[in-house]
Amino acid sequence: MKQFRIRQYYQEILEHLKTYFPAPVSNPIMDGYFAHTMSNFLDRIDRLKSAKPLLGIRQEKSYESRLSQCFPTEMKSVETVTQLLVDYCQGMIVWAHPNAQVNVVSSPTIPSITAFIAAAIYNPNIIEDETSARFAEAEIDAIAMLSDLIGYDSQQSGGVFTFGGTGTLLYGCKLGIEKILGGQTMREGIREDVKIVASAASHYTRLNVAGWLGLGTKNLVTIPTTRDNEMSLIALEKYLRQAFDTGEKVAVILATLGSTDAFGIDDLAAIAQLRDRLVKEYNLEQPPWIHADSVIGWAWTVFRDYDFDNNPLGFHSRTLRSLQDSLQHINSLHLADSLGIDFHKTGYVPYISSLFLVKQRQDLMLIGRESEQMPYLYHFGHYHPGNYTLECSRSGASPLAAVANIHLFGKQGYRVLIGHIVEMAEMLRERLEACPFIQVLNDYNYGPVTLFRVYPDGIDAESAFERELNDPNYHAQLQQHNAYNQQISQLVHERAMRGEGVLLSWTSTYRYARYANGLPIGALKSFIMSPWTDLKAVDTVVQQILEARIQVKPVFSL
Ligand SMILES: *Cc1c(COP(=O)(O)O)cnc(C)c1O
After folding, report:
1. Domain span at residue 66?
2. pLDDT tens digits, one per residue of 241-261
3. Which of 161, 162, 166 to probe ligand 1 with, by most ligand atoms within 8 A of CB?
4. β-strands 249-256, 289-293: how paired?
5. What does pTM read for this prediction?
6. Residue 42 belongs to a domain
7. Does the C-beta of 101 come closer than 6 Å to ligand 1?
């Protein structure tokens, strides 16, 4: 590349600078250069791939040395920056790698990536259709098709793509608060306490939402979970009765359908029934809003019309039971007033692609603005979501990528993907259950995630876990076992990072022991998401635990 002297006519530089952009009018040579740049990037990345579930190497770094960097003066070439980008990819976990079982992270498909590229080139902003053309239609299409999938009436339903599962929860809770406070809070603010009720296994984003909406986390009510990580209906009813008896306002009941750590699934139908019964009994003017946090669990609705009797896809019987069991609760998603869907979790789409769906689209008017408040917008076109979205600029990438995968997979493809990751998790559970020194913790939550604890020789896993859960006199052992498991997790992690095993993760609080001030119970976690995960990878998980157990000496006396 040509070097530039400091003093130069800007027009000359500008001519060169234009080669940094995709050509705005037909120019096959420049398109060739663009395609070459992408292919050059892929070639360079390819050299970073290995048996390790990560790109290149990951170095433990201190970030301090980077703090003194200055903003560069000179331009760089496209090639130099491409290499810079490749370097920034160093150490990334390859989520699709058969030896990555880390968390609920998608490996995006080629068409969903193409959709992101399309949006990156043409840069649609779905604040209105004037600035997003058919990308806006993609949003409407996704809303319609997802409504059909989960069982909303798409003539009535509505929605909006937003900034993550967190955004979907924010919209859901905001609508519930508007409802209970008469649609006044956009103007008047929140001037009284109203409650958001969720289970102890619900995602921590409820804390963000309560805090950021100005409600305050003190207005969160936490309902204990059953052993299956479901919201306890008895405890919920008890709380609601006490609230209604004392005139407390309940804005939102947050049902979790597919909890992050254990794939716990709340009984949404029973929760909705309970709400309706109590609303009648207490003669409440405004029923609590039910928002379903189904950002992970939504994908299981592709099995709503699967022929479980004939099982045409030929899933293992354990897998069938598991899918059917999950579906039992997820089948009721349409009973929620609103819900959240993360395509970037179980939809195999890049970050960020999250859809907030609402049963009655007119409810979005509760958070709308008058057009006089936005003078430069909405003079053209017919679709103006910017009237009610929290965001102003909103990328067209997320709905287009969602639509790409919906068409790519259909129900059939998603059934195979979800069925496969559950099948692999079932195979893993079967193997772990056969070891007397391993306890699978979420044994009744049949998702792609498996949480388990390992115990030293001479300790029976099942009875030890039972005591950890219930016996206050066993808390010292619980603490020691936590440390032991964390050591095993550490060892497994180090080995996997060297390419000698499967990368798992660790959760420091699978749940709390059940007695007062119970300690957290940690767990090793396998989250299978990759279509490339196979029985070999499953066997490796068990094998590496056995080997780690030999290396890790318990630091305590039995
Ligand atoms: C991941 C997750 C969230 C948060 O979603 P983001 O997309 O990470 O913002 C909320 N609820 C559940 C159950 C989740 O798993």
Report:
1. 2-87
2. 999 999 999 999 999 999 988
3. 166
4. parallel
5. 0.94
6. yes
7. no
